[in-house]
Amino acid sequence: VGLGWENDTQSNISDLGLFGLSDLGWDRLHLLLGGRYDDYAVRSRDDGVLAYAPPSGKANGGRFTWSASLSWRDDSGLLPYLTHARSSSLETGQAGEVPTTLLVSGGWVSDSTLDEAGVKYAVDGLDASLALYRQDRTQLAQIGGAHVSGTRGEGVELEVRWLLNDHLSATLAASLSHTFIEGPDHSFAYIPARNAGVSPQDGFGGAYLTYDFATLKGPGDYDDTLVPHAVVSPWLTYTGQGWGASRGATEVGKAAQTGPDPVVFPAHVTANLSAFVARGSWRASVNLDNLFEA
Fold first, then answer.
1. What is this structure's pTM?
2. Chain-centre distance of CA 203, in angstroms?
3. b/e 133-170 (16+ beta carbons within 10 angstroms → b)
4. What is the pLDDT of residues 40-70, one digit of tens each?
5. Within 13 A of 78's CA, how many CA atoms are on the CB side?
């Protein structure tokens, strides 16, 4: 019908990479080292009818990525470890494109730093791991034009896999985390009518936005409350002769809008059940999701 895309970005990317990996050991101490160098050359063109972006852009340059992990192994099954990693990669959109705005402004490479400390435990029938982490990285938003902001994630993760007997096994995955957006956040954002001083009744059917989210959140860092802080998921599985069943649940903590006077999405539990029957080359399975609609 003659309508064009608001954004129509085409990117040509070349990457020449070289990497190496080594595993060094002394007695019970192990050091795993990895490194990679990438030489990028990127060209992009945006033919959109309402792009709010430069029509074209190009950039090139090299980036180095590396990681180091130190661990201690002994006969008890415990393996404590420390990991530090720095990585760089292209800041790409959902379709793998590099926005022209970033090529012109210099934000076309995404940098990340990860620090992690934890312990793993493995004996016959039982595997478990516990990790504390902190990660600094960037995130790309493309509503109202490409914009890159810094984020900081902190948390703890637990994972347990336990073989109780020849037929019964249990798993547990749990995490507590916080994600912070580094301020000032000058991104474009749609906002509720009430944040613009308009009542929900008068603002129904309209769209309200800000070109600078820092005018609502202030110049400092803020907690990304759209991401639940706690997630817990236990599962129990039975496997018999030609049949099996699994029962589990996932509890997700509350989430909320990031603007002032937010709408809060309450914590909830989703329980699931699945089963299968196998006979020769035939197999039938059934899955029931959200059993209790909690």
1. 0.84
2. 33
3. bebbbbebebeeebbbbebbbebebebbbeeeeeeebe
4. 999 999 998 888 889 999 999 999 999 999 9
5. 4
